Amino acid sequence: MSSDSLLETSCLKSSLRLVVSVLLTTKYLSKSLLTVRLPLDSVGSSTMLEKFDRSKPNVNIGTIGHVDHGKTTLTAAITKVLAEKGEAKAMAYDQIDAAPEEKARGITINAAHVEYETAKRHYTHVDCPGHADYVKNMITGAAQMDGAILVVAATDGVMPQTREHVLLAKQVGVPYIVVFLNKCDQVDDPELIDLVEMDVRDLLSKNGFDGENCPVVRGSALKALEAAPGSADEQCIVDLMNACDESIPDPVRDIEKPFLMAVEDVMTITGRGTVATGRVERGEIKSNDAVEIVGLMPTRTSTVISLEMFRKTLDYAKAGDNIGMLLRGVDRDQVVRGQVIAKPGTIVPHAKFRAQVYILTKEEGGRHTAFADGYRPQFYFRTTDVTGVISLEEGSKIVMPGDHVEFNVELIKKVAIEKNTKFAIREGGHTVGAGTVIDILD
């Protein structure tokens, strides 16, 4: 295999899934953006890699917002400014633009993961897609975040995908948002920027965030990216990272519960085995621990050979870590995106459950009309989506947009779910509902 890292292989394979995110031109990406680079030929061997430094708390963060508002430009600018302080390591990854047919349109076909540090923290950053048709990957990405940077172009203000991303961020449990008003250099009237800020704060408040007190940083990501080291144009990035440090608390990791990780990507390393990547949702795991691979297919048992994160070996992984896990005795087709890897005996797959759901209104981007018994949308759990059939309560003929409702669901495939598992409901490229599993029925 010619690639020298797990992520580079993951990017190439994930491109087949057509997960779209805004891409800054290769010129700037090659200068500034960092990658999760885990060497394929060294997985399972600690001789070539340094150990991951846990002296600073690790916080998962990400950019969300409307397409072309500058999410990837901002990500690149953050790494560039922090690299000048020795708190990030700039690495080229031209390979991340793995789809030539998309390159001319200025988009790439994957979500980028980067790492950087401030004086207080280590950050793991995911650059989420912006296209409405690919919100399912945003759901996956947002589910990994301890906080989000909402990027809003001052030239456009709040747009449809801005609203959808904020709604989804709340539904999948993103607890804190910091706002970056981008492209402020292109707006001559400061009062217009004030109006955009008011709209953003109102949007956050309506979706259950603290819109009144949420930090809002103004600036230009592109100017910061192009600026000379130490110039005034970089100050907005410094202010943004200070806001993240101060406004997003150190996350309390769920390490007491049994280990569980949703599988985000899978690849084979010739001569070594199968690697599954994803974020540890809860618990801890170490090499030689037994695990089960649950959901979508018959449950399978394996053993963890080794663990890595950001090209560094891990003695153990814990809740919140984004890791690569080398599994013993598992073929490439025996583990897939959407399954979970868990401590044996702690979670089982189900197809039938009862849910408490909010159905979005037309104004929130949801359905324009009611639906009836037998409705078959897509249900998004962690990193998977499965078609399910909705059964309404006896006597209930229809459900209207805006309704809070309980109903039963039968999925066409069994997935690893339990009480309190959150999910989104999607239909025709739109999020139409958000819910929680309240009871298992099979």
Automatic annotation (TrEMBL):
Any one GO molecular-function label of the UniProt entry: translation elongation factor activity
Keywords, comma-separated and alphabetical = Elongation factor, GTP-binding, Nucleotide-binding, Protein biosynthesis
Q: At the top level of its lineage, which domain of life is listed?
A: Eukaryota
Q: PROSITE patterns per the record?
A: G_TR_1, G_TR_2
Q: Which residues form the Tr-type G domain?
A: 56-252
Q: Which Gene3D superfamilies does the record match to this protein?
A: P-loop containing nucleotide triphosphate hydrolases, Translation factors
The record's catalysed reaction(s) read:
GTP + H2O = GDP + phosphate + H(+)
Q: Cellular component terms, GO, for this chain's entry? A: cytosol
Q: Which NCBIfam families match?
A: EF-Tu (TIGR00485), PRK00049.1 (NF000766), PRK12735.1 (NF009372), PRK12736.1 (NF009373), small_GTP (TIGR00231)
Protein role:
This protein promotes the GTP-dependent binding of aminoacyl-tRNA to the A-site of ribosomes during protein biosynthesis.
Q: Which family does it belong to?
A: Belongs to the TRAFAC class translation factor GTPase superfamily. Classic translation factor GTPase family. EF-Tu/EF-1A subfamily.
- What's this protein's name? Elongation factor Tu
